[in-house]
Design a protein that fits this description.
Elements (H helix, E strand, L loop, with lengths): L2 H8 L4 H7 L3 H30 L11 H35 L7 H23 L13 H31 L12 H31 L13 H5 L12 H16 L6 H14 L20 H28 L9 H23 L11 H23 L1 H4 L7 H27 L21 H42 L1
Helix pairs in contact: 3-4, 3-5, 3-16, 4-5, 4-6, 4-13, 5-6, 6-7, 7-9, 7-10, 9-11, 9-12, 9-13, 10-11, 11-12, 12-13, 12-15, 13-15, 15-16
């Protein structure tokens, strides 16, 4: 090798340099995917720590009082939704959806900007939570500067997701192959289009809430919007019914595509399913359900629009599940004795979506008085758990296009997914029972508000904690599988270069 060849070899970009300067959708997908996976794991660990604290609410064994527990409880929800599942869906949207449309990603530089803006914002948000800030604390015991950092990080997260959503929507509208109509799109592309439309309607409103909180928080002592005990209530609508359902919509599209591919069977009544998924997206718009601005005496979640949406989404979800079941019935023999891992996982995800929507409908029945109980937590756990399963199944199904041909770890993915599904069911169902027993979804200033330690639900708290542990274990198994995939592809790539 000559000196010139050595210099050229030494000047080749590192993996980090290549990732930071690339506009290749596959590279961006890896950044979205690995970042979201790590943050979903961290969010699940935060939920596990909260579960450990709930085992003995008579004393603060894990956190230093109620404020610390609230910070981790809210970090759990923020990390799963805005830092984890939505970016995970964006990883599939930037790579798989353009290929399904027969074109390439539109505005790749803007897509790269959105990806790195999200990652920087996610890092700032995480640091803000760890620095005793978070989204405020009910007891006012957080660090104000760290809280401001968290809110600013959240604004960057929202900005990145919005930019990426616009790129994906534009790709579907104007970048698809000639002669391909919207009715011809795969269900993943179609549901991503509907979901991205909802995201671009809701996320700016969430950003406006955050801006109000940030402006009031900075400088002089906060008066209203930036008060520590008020910030979470202004943002919490994004993590509850009906806004939480928008996470499940692309997962239902992934499920329909995965089952059709693995069974080698086309869906019957395709137009009905297209309309049903669009209706599911319409019913998931939840920016109106902001409890912070409730009219005295008339909670927004008890008003007709919220209640009708909660009940209407259940038959829509059942219709989509019926279409999935019909495809399985007609194409089941093609699966063979051992169905692929992604098929099993998307079916479980669809069942969890239906269960979550049913719990959401139960949540708003006024005579039951469940609005401030742990039933809301059950709704969150079931729907977000379904979204995590669906994203993981989607990554596994399209792994060759995302990471390379050495990416098959079917057994590990299936085992990890089953552990996650079991954990979600355990945590969700115990939260549902606790809510029916009038236990609260933690928002208060005392540890007792996370569930009365003398209420007789200690066994339920233990089962819920075991469920959280199963989820973390399943996610760790998925991360190990992802690491093995990366190592296998790197080894294969080095082998090809050495052979050349």
């Amino acid at each position: 090798m000559t000196t010139t060849d050595t210099a050229a070899s030494d000047s080749s970009p590192t993996v980090l340099e290549e990732a930071m300067t690339s506009t290749d959708p596959t590279t961006l997908s890896k950044v979205w995917g690995f970042g979201s996976g790590a943050l979903i794991l961290l969010g699940s660990i935060a939920g596990l720590l909260v579960g450990l604290e709930r085992l003995d609410l008579g004393s603060a064994n894990v956190f230093d009082g109620a404020d610390g527990m609230f910070q981790f409880w809210s970090a759990h929800r923020v990390a799963l939704v805005l830092l984890g599942v939505l970016p995970g869906l964006m990883a599939l949207a930037t790579t798989i959806v353009p290929r399904q449309c027969g074109g390439s990603l539109v505005f790749p530089r803007a897509a790269a900007l959105g990806c790195w803006t999200w990652l920087i914002g996610a890092s700032m948000t995480l640091v803000g939570f760890l620095a005793d800030g978070g989204l405020g604390t009910p007891g006012g015991g957080g660090q104000r500067q760290a809280t401001a950092l968290t809110v600013m990080g959240l604004l960057l997260v929202i900005a990145g997701l919005l930019v990426a959503s616009v790129c994906v929507m534009t790709t579907i509208f104007s970048g698809r192959a000639a002669g391909t109509g919207l009715r011809d799109l795969s269900f993943t592309a179609w549901t991503t289009l509907v979901a991205a439309t909802i995201w671009t309607g809701m996320l700016p409103i969430l950003a406006a809430n955050a801006v109000l909180a940030y402006v009031d928080l900075r400088g002089r002592p906060a008066i209203r919007f930036g008060a520590e005990d008020a910030i979470w209530e202004q943002l919490s609508w994004m993590f509850t019914h009906p806004a939480i359902y928008v996470l499940a919509l692309p997962v239902l599209g992934i499920a329909l595509d995965v089952v059709a591919t693995t069974t080698r069977t086309t869906q019957a009544n395709r137009d009905v399913l297209l309309v049903a998924t669009a209706a599911f997206g319409f019913l998931s718009f939840g920016a109106f359900a902001q409890t912070f601005f409730d009219t005295p005496g008339t909670p927004i979640r008890e008003e007709a629009l919220s209640v009708v949406a909660a009940f209407a989404i259940v038959p829509v979800a059942l219709a989509i599940l019926g279409g999935l079941a019909d495809t399985l019935r007609r194409g089941g023999p093609n699966l063979g004795p051992k169905p692929p891992a992604e098929t099993v996982l998307v079916v479980l995800a669809a069942l969890l979506v239906v269960a979550g929507s049913a719990v959401g409908a139960l949540h708003v029945i006024a005579p039951l008085d469940l609005l401030d109980t742990a039933v809301g937590g059950a709704n969150f756990t079931l729907v977000v758990g379904a979204a995590i399963l669906g994203v993981g199944a989607g990554f596994h199904h399209w792994v060759d296009e995302l990471t390379g041909p050495e990416g098959h770890r079917d057994g590990m993915i299936l085992l990890g997914g089953l552990a996650i599904a079991l954990g979600v069911v355990l945590s969700g169902m115990t939260d549902l029972i606790s809510g029916l027993l009038d236990q609260t979804d933690f928002t208060g200033v005392t540890l007792a508000s996370a569930g009365n330690p003398n209420s007789g639900v200690d066994a339920l708290n233990l089962v819920s904690m075991i469920g959280s542990l199963a989820v973390v274990g399943g996610l760790v198994l998925w991360m190990l599988a992802g690491g093995l995939v990366t190592a296998a592809n790197r080894t294969a790539g080095n082998g090809e270069r050495d052979g050349a």
